Amino acid sequence: MTTDAAQIRKKFLKLAKILHPDVFGRTPEEKETATKYFSKMVSPAYQLLNHDRERGEYLATLRMFAQNKKQKEEVPTLSSEIAQKLYRIPHEITYKQYVEQISPKQYETLDSIMEYTATLSELNLVYLFTQTSLGFTSGSSSAVASPAVNQSANAEATPAAKPAQSPALRNLNMAELFISKKQWTDALKELLSAEKIDPNNAKVYALKGLVQMNQNAAAIAKSSFQKALKLDPKEPTALKYINQVNAATKPPEKPPEKKGGLFGWGKK
User: Fold this and answer.
1) How much is the mean pLDDT over the chain?
2) pLDDT digits over 193-208, tens only?
3) Is position 261 within any domain?
4) Which of 101, 98, 66, 103 is CA-nearest to residue 85?
5) pTM of the model
6) CA-to-CA distance for 201 and 122, rounded, in angstroms?
7) SS3 182
8) Number of domains, the chain
9) What distance in Å separates the CA atoms of residue 201 and residue 63, rounded to the nearest whole number?
């Protein structure tokens, strides 16, 4: 979150080499998994972080999300011990040290990617919650501390910029990876987190519907698809599967009533 453009590009090229499908010794399944990690996580993150404007808007969106949670006095849910430790004693230098400690382990093996990505995400979340004066300067690719400003006056002076990417982008990408592996429970967990961060994102509900459909919860899936289409009538995943869950939730037709006297006797 405080890395400059040169470091971002250096990291991207390193990961591109690590996740290249032609890495010696990998099985076809491992090559496919590595390719998905690169296309769903690494490449989208690089496209976002490598541009000053998009990165600034994304950081601003995350900052607003954290401020909103703090105003509601919501405590972030943290699973990793290192993130809990940072939350108890927050400091920017400590945050950087922890990130530098975890980051090299993230892509050591394909099996470790999810675990360490989740830990890094929690460290970033703690950083957002505990740093009161995050800012972003144009012409720079690093997050820096900036003086506090009058939010209401600033809002009146300039309209809020629409974020280029969803603040739940990481959760969505992780969910898609889990879906590709048919790990429905893990995918749903990511999507529930994404829903809290970005509750008006049609893709979140469409993917929830897909997961729920594969968990044999057709009625709940139908509701998720309907919400996705309400937010975006052209959402492709919801459009693709809505008819399938409609058919699954359609009540069975009643058999024709038998006409007649007592116990069906007497009339034909």
Assistant:
1) 77
2) 888 888 899 999 999 9
3) no
4) 98
5) 0.54
6) 22
7) coil
8) 2
9) 18
